[in-house]
Write a structure and sequence with these properties.
The structure holds 2 protein chains of 2 kinds. By secondary structure, chain A is α+β, with helices and mostly antiparallel strands. Chain A is built from 16 helices and 23 strands. Chain A has helices at 2-22, 75-84, 131-142, 182-186, 194-197, 255-263, 277-282, 313-322, 325-333, 364-373, 390-404, 417-425, 449-452, 466-476, 481-498, 520-523, and strands spanning 55-60, 89-92, 95-98, 101-106, 112-117, 155-156, 159-160, 162-167, 170-174, 218-224, 228-233, 246-251, 269-272, 286-301, 339-341, 380-386, 409-415, 434-440, 501-514, 517-518, 525-526, 530-531, 538-539. The longest helix of chain B is centred in the first third of the chain and has 36 residues, at 87-122. Classes of the chains: A alpha+beta, B mainly alpha.
């Protein structure tokens, strides 16, 4: 009796093990491209001309939140959606590259934009991609019930931008008033198929997102939650047949383990932290590619704290003088290779960017002078820090030490990252003065309006300058590029002089790409999504 | 026995209710805001408020709990706040991976611990015992994540014998492939438990060997192996079963770490993501599931106890 019962339990445990192992065996059959990453399989002659075939594995840090571009806000979803869904066009250094679109022209009064689509576009399921899909996408974004992240971007002063079909290949966008930032809004739009989502009550929760139908270079094949997302080559891609047979996004949550998998060839492309670069570089199997993410890292001065310590611009300037940009960059990013010193609140990829503005840097004597002139003594400041954030922790200690030298006491307040974010984005929180953070706002300077106008919804520094308000509001509605440039140049000068923030650096992101792959330049390294056009990447 | 099981199962209902209230309160008391996981700097305040309203997060906490409880009683565990997929689907999709990992780790730990513990106990203070002891202390003191990384480095990078991460080679679907991927996480997770079990079995073997029945067996002419595996083992199994029930909690915690290190697609890594995003429907679902597992694990241990030792049958 005893024996039988015990063996029964063992049987249960074994069954558990076996069912776990065999689950998922009913999915797709083994593909020919698998195993292509073993060292033996890659010993092919290295040539400069692109070759077809092979697969690429990109390491990502989490599961995608949504494989529908209307709801993708996180890095992983945006990265995968970039390959699945073609955009209308992209902008690099102010120049447009057209994808689904053939052209985009503004009317003389700048109130109507006409978008022409390329001829012969198809979705991954073979259906035609037409103006109806573009209009449907914009209507869905505008539909409050559909809950898209992009919705507010399609409103200018509370009035919606409307999309109207002219013919199968032409869409007109009607703007309620002049808004040159409209192009930067449209650049974020990747159309979704009308024939798939037409009668869905909630596109966000639709089960159809589990097997997305896109228009990009790669089509959806398989998603194993917690494991990977695999995409296959889309032969009818309008930009020409992609070189790779498939692309897989492998989910690896632990950075150390993911770096080992990279060295082991189980991952071919991955972001690197600056401190890991030397280890990966030493293997000599990877191209290490640092590129600008259009991100500004900065110290924020809360002008509206309950002590009123930072209300005066002279005090903020004095604090800036006490610090050295170069030293902070060394402290936070280990080397200047991954961060360019910043002065303007705009990032270098933004239109009308200039770093030729006032900068208060590394002059402790001047700092003391300014404090004295402002009549400030025994200044005490609170610096909020996210526990476990190495860059923030290191910089906060540096700031504490440097400000002590000019007689300013800094109290470091470490807290959980979600508590930190909650405090930081609450425009009513008054119990801290300094925080370190960063932003990526896109290439049109109008995006920065919500950060630096008095009533801006993201005016975290509680910065108030009516002149800047006027410049940024005028810039939003100015169609003439030269006049617009003058407005934003002036705004950058004024903001720099008021020192609501201490700009630290335009940080770079570092990507390691296995030397087995080519076509990286043609694919264009892009902030957030890694590759703009994966169809150009090939296996050597 | 049947009545004991029914009684114990009924007891789980108030227990689960209590767990859900505590868990929900903790999520709500913790700093942070689930909506923040959606927020990007170029998002407008109106969008943020709209998302908050649509998710029902602008309501008081007790109302949110009430709505959640009502739905759960109807068998609907709700949708994840982050990816809007049904909670139950996400959990059931990941359950087999976790169950497989835990089941195999426990099995491995027990199967190895029994002979090692008996061996150590029977050879007290000799070199065999000292070697086993050394590894036991190592197993108890080494953190799981460190051991995991070490094993990856050794077996995946250096010796190139095993894959370093995930549960499958991409595109390959065979049981052997899954087992190959499972070896390192299973060994990692089993190591700590093995050490604890060996220590327990060793010390109870030592005390059992002093009992009269052992002397009698020897007097009847039984050899050492028969005494150990036929007689001592039966007595030694008792604390092991209790331990099994008790270690369910550690097992869940260990699985979370192991799954993260090896990118094993189970409940643990899902739970970590949920906690980071303050995704309360998913956190609640996973907590309830872990509680049920703990309670059932303990119940199973008690039933086994009754089987191994008939004196305790009936839960008395």
């Amino acid at each position: 009796m005893l024996k039988r019962q015990t063996s029964f339990i063992v049987l249960i445990l074994l069954t558990l093990l076996v069912t776990a192992c065999s689950s998922g065996n009913n999915a797709a059959s083994p593909s020919a491209s698998a195993g292509g990453n073993s060292p033996a399989a890659t010993q092919q002659a290295e040539t400069g001309t692109p070759k077809d075939g092979g697969s690429l594995i990109i390491g990502v840090a989490s599961d995608p939140v949504s494989l529908n571009p209307l709801y993708a806000g996180d890095r992983v979803s945006l990265t995968i959606d970039q390959a699945l869904f073609a955009p209308l066009f992209q902008v690099n250094n102010g120049k447009k590259t057209f994808y689904l679109a053939d052209s985009l022209t503004a009317s003389a009064d700048n109130l109507t934009y006409t978008l022409k689509l390329k001829d012969g576009l198809t979705w991954h399921d073979g259906q035609k991609l037409t103006a109806d899909d573009v209009v449907f996408t914009v209507d869905s974004i505008l539909d409050e019930k559909q809950n898209s992240f992009l919705r507010e971007n399609f409103f200018v002063n509370g009035n919606p931008i409307k999309a109207v079909k002219v013919d199968d290949l032409t869409v007109e966008f009607k703007l309620p008033q002049v808004s040159p930032a409209f192009e930067a809004t449209l650049v974020q739009v990747s159309p979704i198929p009308k024939h798939v989502f037409e009668n869905e009550a909630s596109i966000e929760k639709s089960t159809k997102n589990a097997a997305p139908v896109g228009s990009g270079a790669f089509k959806f094949k398989e998603y194993k939650t917690g494991e990977y997302v695999t995409l296959d080559r889309f032969d009818n891609y309008f930009g020409g047949k992609p070189h790779l047979d498939s692309v897989t996004y492998r989910i690896a949550k632990d950075t150390n383990a993911a770096n080992l998998a990279l060295q082991n060839g189980e991952i071919n492309v991955k972001y690197l932290d600056p401190q890991d670069v030397s280890t990966i570089q030493a293997t000599n199997n990877f191209e290490i590619l640092p590129y600008s993410e259009g991100r500004l890292a900065y110290l924020m001065f809360n002008a509206d704290s309950n002590t009123g310590a930072l209300a005066k611009k002279e005090v903020r300037q004095a604090l800036s003088y006490a610090l050295s940009r170069e030293e902070i960059i060394q402290t936070a990013y280990t080397s200047g290779e991954y961060a360019d010193p910043a002065k303007s609140f705009l990032t270098p990829d933004a239109l009308f960017f200039t770093n030729d503005v006032a900068s208060f840097d590394n002059d402790p004597a001047k700092a003391k002078e300014l404090l004295e002139a402002a009549g400030v003594k025994n200044l005490k400041l609170r610096f909020i820090v996210q526990s476990g954030n190495k860059a923030q922790e290191a910089v906060s200690l540096y700031v504490q030490q440097k400000l002590k030298a000019i007689g300013v006491e800094v109290e470091l307040q470490n807290m959980d990252s979600s508590a930190w974010v909650q405090k930081f984005i609450d425009l009513k929180s008054t119990d801290f003065e300094i925080a370190m953070t960063g932003y990526i706002m896109g290439y049109d300077p109008d995006a920065y309006r919500i950060l630096y106008t008095s009533t801006g919804s993201s005016n975290y520094a509680r910065y108030k300058n009516t002149e800047v308000d006027k410049l940024l509001n005028d810039g939003a509605g100015e169609a003439d590029a030269a006049k617009r440039e003058a407005l934003y140049k002036k705004a950058q000068e004024l903001v720099a002089d008021d020192a609501p923030i201490y700009p630290i650096a335009y940080t770079k992101t570092v990507v390691a790409v296995s030397k087995e792959y080519g076509g990286i330049d043609e694919a264009v390294l892009k902030p957030v999504v890694i590759f703009e056009d994966l169809s150009k990447v090939y296996k050597k | 026995m049947k009545r004991m099981i029914i009684r114990r199962l009924l007891q789980t209902i108030p227990m689960l209710f209590f767990v859900s209230v505590v868990c929900f309160s903790m999520i709500k008391l913790a700093p942070g805001d689930p909506v923040l996981s959606f927020v990007t700097p170029n998002m407008h305040a109106e969008d943020i408020e709209r998302i908050r309203h649509n998710l029902g997060l602008d309501q008081p906490a007790y109302v949110q709990y009430g709505i959640w409880l009502k739905e759960v009683l109807q068998g609907n565990f709700g949708y994840s706040l982050v990816n809007h997929q049904p909670v139950l689907d996400q959990i059931t999709a990941r359950l087999p991976a976790t169950a497989g990992l835990m089941g195999s780790a426990i099995l491995l730990a027990v199967l190895l611990a029994i002979p090692l513990g008996l061996l150590g106990g029977a050879n007290r203070n000799r070199w065999v015992d000292k070697t086993i002891n050394f590894f036991s202390y190592l197993g108890i003191s080494v953190p799981l994540f460190w051991l995991g990384i070490l094993l990856i480095y050794l077996f995946a990078i250096h010796l190139r014998l095993l894959p370093s991460m995930g549960m499958r080679t991409i595109g390959v679907n065979s049981a052997w492939d899954v087992i190959k991927h499972g070896i390192l996480p299973c060994v990692t997770l089993a190591f700590g438990f093995l050490a604890v079990y060996v220590r327990y079995i060793r010390s109870s073997t030592i005390s059992q060997l002093k009992e009269e029945y052992v002397q009698i067996q020897y007097a009847f002419g039984s050899n050492k192996r028969t005494v150990l595996f036929r007689h001592v083992l039966k007595h030694v199994m008792l604390p092991v079963i209790t331990l099994l029930g008790l270690s369910m909690g550690d097992l869940v915690a260990g699985a979370i770490v192991t799954e993260s290190v090896f990118s094993w697609p189970g409940i643990g890594s899902l739970g970590m993501t949920a906690v980071r995003g303050m995704d309360y429907p998913l956190i609640m679902g996973i907590t309830l599931l872990s509680s049920v597992m703990l309670i059932l694990g303990n119940l199973l241990a008690d039933i086994l106890y009754g089987i191994v030792d008939p004196r305790i049958k009936g839960g008395r």
